[in-house]
Structures are given as C-alpha cells and as structure tokens.
Amino acid sequence: MRKTTKLTLFILISFLLPMAALFLQSRITNDNVSLLLFGVQAASPSIAAFAVLLLSKEVRPHFKAIYQKGHITAVIVIPVLIASITMLISKSVYCIVFEKAFSLGNISVTKWLILLWALVAEELGWRGYLEPFLREMKIKKWAVPCVVGIIWSLWHYHYFIQGRIDVPILLFCVGCIIESYIYSILVSTTRNVLSAMIYHFSWNLMLNLFMISPSDNGGNIIPYTLVIILETVGIIIYGLYRRNKESSSDNP
Fold first, then answer.
1. CA distances for 91 relative to 37, 102, 174, angstroms
2. Do residues 9 and 48 make contact, with C-beta atoms less than 8 angstroms apart?
3. How far apart are CA 157 and CA 186, in angstroms?
C-alpha cells in the first residue's frame, strides 16, 4: 500500500468515524449505548491506525518500534509531573492575581471512565502512528509536531458540535499545536508511546481536577491561557537546552 493511500485512509477513518457515532447518538436514547459511541469517537484515531496497519500487515513490527523497553520511570513519572505542575502553577497564579479561592473539582464515576479511556483512545493513533509516519515521509523534524497538532485540533470538531469543549476554537487550536510538541518530546526522549498516553490522561485529569476550563471559571479563559503560555515557555527552555547540549558535543 502506498504511503499516500495509508495517510488518506487514516485521516478518513479518524474523521468520519466520529461523525457516524454522532449520527447514531442522535438516534439512540440509551445512555449506555451513547457512552459506548462516545468511546468510539474518542478512539477513532487508534481504530484508524489499527485498520491501516492490518491492511498493510505491519501491526507487529510497528508496535515493536513504538514500545521500547527501558526508561520506565521516565515514561510514567515525567508526563504526570509535567501535567500536574503546569496546571497547579496556572491555577495558583490565576487565584492569586484575581483573588479567587483555590478549589478543586469533583470527578464523577462516569468522568473517571472517560478519563481512563484517554489512556488508550487517541495516542496509539496520533503519536503512535501519525507522527512516526510523517517522519518517514521526510517532513522536517521540527514541523512534524505542528502538522500533527493541526490535524489533531481539527479532529476535535465532533466535541465542539456536542458542546463538550468550551474553549474558543482559535485558542484551542493553538493549545493543541503547543501540546503536540510536548507529546513529541516525551515520545522521542523515552522511545515509548506509553509516555504520550500517560501524559494525555494526566493532562485531562489535571484539567478537571484544577478546574482550568472556562466553564469552571465563569467563562474566564485566563487559566487555560496560562497553561498554554507555561507549556510554550517549557518547550522554548527545552529547545535551548537541547541546542546547547548539541553544540557542546560538537565542540569538545
């Protein structure tokens, strides 16, 4: 199967499957079935990746490549720390500057199920398949996370249709692109897509726990904006660190 065919098939399944799930949800009133269809929406990138890999008979070698042994502490701890510290600082700054009470959100059982599903739903498709695929297509290394971030942000269209995302679209898209670089750094550093999966879960969990979304702050987008700013600063610092490290190794 040609690379362009693989990419087209992956994109089509990722984007059309949520639309089909939305249509079925509008026709079905059973809450359990509706929740199941919501899970299909979230997992469409991973389902798409599996479908393409099965058709091209590349499942085993692909997953062997994206799950490297070792760095297990970094794989688990670092993503949780990054998400936790970013959200905690953002919420704290917001509360201090605007003299708001620091409070934590309550997470229902259903919400916990949705959050846990994030561990496997998306990242096998985005960072586990699309990003390495784009790298194989010889796209410039620095541009790959940006491309993935743009596609990833557009894919969320079905959540906007359902009213599940209350962040302004432009701000949300910028956030997806910035966060895509964090995912890329984690995966390239640990050589294990599990780090991206844990980060996705941790980010969503902390977003709810620290009540960062506008809906948790009377429509105020500042906490969410602060998260994006901190993530941007972190990426810049990491980039400068990597550049200095590479320069030092080139000039002993």
1. 33, 8, 19
2. yes
3. 26
